[in-house]
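Notes from the pairing session

We agreed to fold both candidates in a single pass and log them together. This is the raw record for the first candidate, unedited. Please don't reformat it; downstream parsing expects exactly this layout.

Candidate A
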Amino acid sequence: MTETAAVTEERPPAQSALEQFSRRLPYGLDAFQREACARLEEGRSVLVAAPTGSGKTTIAEFAVFLARRERDARIIYTAPIKALSNQKFHELCEQYGEDEVGLLTGDVNLRGDAPIVVMTTEVLRNMIYAEGVDTPPAGESAAGGRQGRLSDLDFVVLDEVHFLGDKFRGAVWEEIILHLPRHVRIVALSATVSNAEEFGDWMHAVRGGTDVILSEHRPVPLYQHVLTSKDLAPLFVGRDGEMAAKGRINPELRMLEAGGSRGNRGGRGARSRGRAPERRSRRISRSDIARALDETRLLPAIVFVFSRNGCDQAVRQCLFEGIALTTREEREQIRARAQEAIKDMSDEERRVLGVREWLAGLERGVAAHHAGLLPVFKSVVEELFQRRLVKIVFATETLALGINMPARAVVIERLDKFNGVDRVPLSSGEYTQLTGRAGRRGIDVEGHAVVVWHDNVDLEALAHLAGARSFPVNSSFRPTPNMAVNLLERMSADRVRETLELSFAQFQTDRAVVGEARELRAMQDSLSGYDDAVKRARGVDQKRWEDRARKLRRKLERGRRQIAARTGTISRTFDRVVALLTELDYLGGTLQDPVVTDWGQLLRRIYGDRDLLVAESLREGAFEELDAPGLAAMCCVLSYEPRRDDEGEGRLPGGTEFAQSFDQVLDIWERLDDLADRHKLPRADMPHAGLAATMHGWANGQPIEHLLEAAGIGAGDFVRWAKQTIDLLDQVAQACENATGPDYARLTALGTTARAAKRSIRRGIVETSSGA
């Protein structure tokens, strides 16, 4: 044996990617994490369903590590909201370096060709549909160009994939899973849902090679409490009467509930006789909540208040009653960070944005967090809470969407919330999401969920919410006009129908159909191969291939008829959409073999619930008399969704041009509404004037302080709708700039106006809130 050979024999075996990754972690992997990572390394996709705070993100981080370990591999990391995308972007930049990580959120387009790209799910869906669409101008939308390249993509992380059940946005997750190239491995991360196996079976049926990894273990135990006017009482007690994570309901709370019920009944009778109620619980104020959490050492804490005004009022009440939870050193750190964040604001901006009150609350360790806050304010609150400088955050439920704000305790003020129409009870899924923020791995040894007591609390209902750790995910998928033209641009109508038969919506309707539809797709591929062979064959060979093709074609048609007869609900909806689009000339050809027209190509680039209304308005010239501020205001109208059914009508900008354009858009909407009804399709909500006048003023250069005061809205709300408006303006610009046909010249001019409108809005606090 040579010396070289001896050295080779003594060399230790190469470490697996999982072993290398594990060595980098400051903690050991749990069994479910190790299993999921091993499956990924084997080349499989995974659906991981586990409790909030259990460490699902570690599996996504392994996928990133695996992608970077493999030469030229790329990975896309998606999150349901922009705040989460921004947070994950910064985390990955710290780990892999800024040159390796990109961010695409619609209003930010940064290094889209990087090997690791973080984006919202909508951006990824748009990229999938935009494959083959001309590259947009530099610096514009994320859909298209090299960042839209999916051929060299190896992994996609779908965080919070249980959002698939959301009735407004859930279809986006389903479209991604259906239409991503088959070679891409998916890392789907979900809360503990009761039908995870069903969801995983569907993913395996449509993509193959998918494993379901389940864990119900919460590494940080969660204890349930009820805050009464006297003390913080455990909801459950064990055999020895001590606090338990689960068990029987605390007898002391039973007595309180019985007393409250008697007091309520007595109160109603007493009032009829002119006497005061016999027994009623003292109302627990938000400052009482702060004191109780401080005294029981349950800080830092998140207190969920299902009202933006309620969150702001809670901070004011704590200030008024002298709540102070920070040391002098902590106050100095808070003050320095907050002053850095607002250094570029004018005195007038600081006044209208309520900076003095915001700073006062922060320095005492108390803050609000909701969609009405300016993004920079929310960012500072999140950072200071993570650093354990801010001790209590009064937040709306949007904070439960996965933002990294680890709390020792979570308080829920009420077990019902206003949904825009009525007060409705919290679902078990909502309760699980909210309380899941309490107790974070590696930080806390236990978490605490606290419900504030009032006389209408139903202990049995509360115990059910606290005990039900999972909820089902049901599909909200349905074909839309934009989806139809994008799919028909890529495949035949028959192939689209077969693809739609693979949807999770169809799978839940009839699980067997998905397997049969997959077989039909394989038959169709084989038939295409036979047809090619017939063209090449000669003599006897030709007859043999023709016979094979004929038999397969009959079998394929028989299978299609069987599927259509059994269910076909999604396909029938698609056929109705095709009929409507054909009637409007977005599709040509026949209903059986439709072809995307020039106007259909324009519709391909318009996304959202009002896709067809925007396209029709462009076609009928409803925007052509508008200048840049007017077009900005109109795109705000077409983006805006009222928060509640009884919201006022809003104000229109002055001038006849906008009023005429608005009336024309309403006429188009009414016609499309009637058309949708005739074709038995869902109808879009009527456009709402909303912030049209406010957006028009902003685009004309008016100062933000006057606009917010006149509109009576928060800066955060304005920035959010400004970003939505920018996104639609960008879509309009791309659609018009890529238009073909006889309307090319007028649409190109409108595209120029849309670009100018976008620039007029993206300034001041909107610009500073759009950075990564």
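Candidate B (folded immediately after A)
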Amino acid sequence: MEDDEHQVTRINIDDGLVDIKYIASQQLDFLRIYIREEPDLYMGSWETSSAQWAVANLTCQEAQLDKSRYACVSINSECLVVNSTMNGFYGYRCKCSSGFQGNPYVQNSCQDIDECKTRRGICKGVCHNTVGSYSCNKCPDKTDYDTTTMQCNSIKRQNIFLGIIIGLSSGLGVLILILSAVFITHRWKRYIQRKLRRKYFRKNQGLLLEQLISSDESASDRTKIFTVKELQKATNNFHQTRIVGHGGHGMVYKGILSDQRVVAIKKSKVIEEGEINQFINEVAILSQINHRNIVKLFGCCLETEVPLLVYDFIPNGSLFGILHSDSSSSCLSWDDCIRIAAEAAGALSYLHSAASISVFHRDVKSSNILLDGNYIAKVADFGASRLVSIDQTHIVTNVQGTFGYLDPEYYYTGQLNEKSDVYSFGVVLIELLLRKEPVLTSETGSKQNLSNYFLWGFKARPLIEIVAAQVLDEATEEEISSVASLAEMCLRLRGEDRPTMKQVEMALRVLQTERLKRCHVDQGNGQETEPFLTPGVMGDCFDQLAAPDYSTTAKLRSENVRKCYSFEQEFMSNSGATC
């Protein structure tokens, strides 16, 4: 229907509603129709409205009397009353009976609704459709209604399905619980580890070391405070396969840092809390030392109970490892031995007098003299070292060192001085001469210090009877006598009777120069060339000696060394016990 003011847009047969659009945008109150016990049938706005409609202004009884005009012609349809409580209007309309759907104003249009299909789950069992309705029956024997699938399933199948669901749910729940527990435990452990690392960092005076390093630009460029995570990654969590040395003061691991530097990480034994400050000072001092014959310190880690030291990795092991290897003869030539001894003596001399503050090594031994890729000597292991102000001649401390190298005067008095390192270095010189370990087994089976054995033989027997055969083959009698005399002076009981490390270094440099001079004479068919130095007499001219050029004397190292000793052998192989 349409006129100038209204337009019917939809007629709803089931609900008896007509949608009207107001073309003139006027709302007409007379279209408001109400039905008793029902909400207002009129719903409208300024543009559209929905109103109840009736077939005719007749009651259902009046309409059914005139069959020719009665509108509810479809079977299974029924008549509905349409009344208005406001203005007394009444009428009727038609609808399909309950359980049917269609158009009640067309014959045979109201058709049965199959509730079993349209309303899934309407029955808690088997659903049977009937005309206008439906019926529900129980599930057959050995079946049960499944609320999940909304149908009857066999009990066995249902149990299996239910078991699968319960199993998966339980498994998933247990897995979630386990993962949650693992996650919480992991987070808790990480929290405890972080807390413990912070505790160790504070205990090990990490803030003090940071201040000391930051205050010195040269030290801050060379020294780093590593985190324990960095060192764990570098050593595969300190795996035992990374162990390259055992010492009296700890264990040494080989590691590879994130920047691909190969380092040696020293894990010291437990130290007393009172020694932490001294350790920090030692690290601060060693970070400033830049000597070609001292192992370079890269930094340390303070997040463990005992601080970790990170050094440059020295690939060719220790002097001890080469001198006392299982091979029939040492791979070091006499030239190499003199050069290595001179380089080590120079490093100790630097620590004693040339550094900004004196450092007493306190554990000089052949296993702490390492050889780099070019077999240059590197003095290492400052775990027992002590710092001494320049105006001090000695310090009183607990006796610490390695049997066979320990200074007797220091052992009995507890007074550590630079001559204690001199004594220990004298034992190294004896090792080079005799090629025996610092503690040896005598013919009677008893243990004996190499120094006592040497001093007794030096006075009572010819040197040729106690010096190693290889040394006799390569060295002259004068050189053997000079080194033996130098070792004897280093091993004197009274420290004041021993030479200084500077004097020892100069004496060894003289031997180098003499051998270099002799080599030039031989190569020149007997025509002597000018020596690099004017040597003095060993016995009384220590103070007049000068060291030759390092780069020239380094040329004397033997080719046999490179062939006999692997680049991947142990970094350190200490054999002595500590006291």
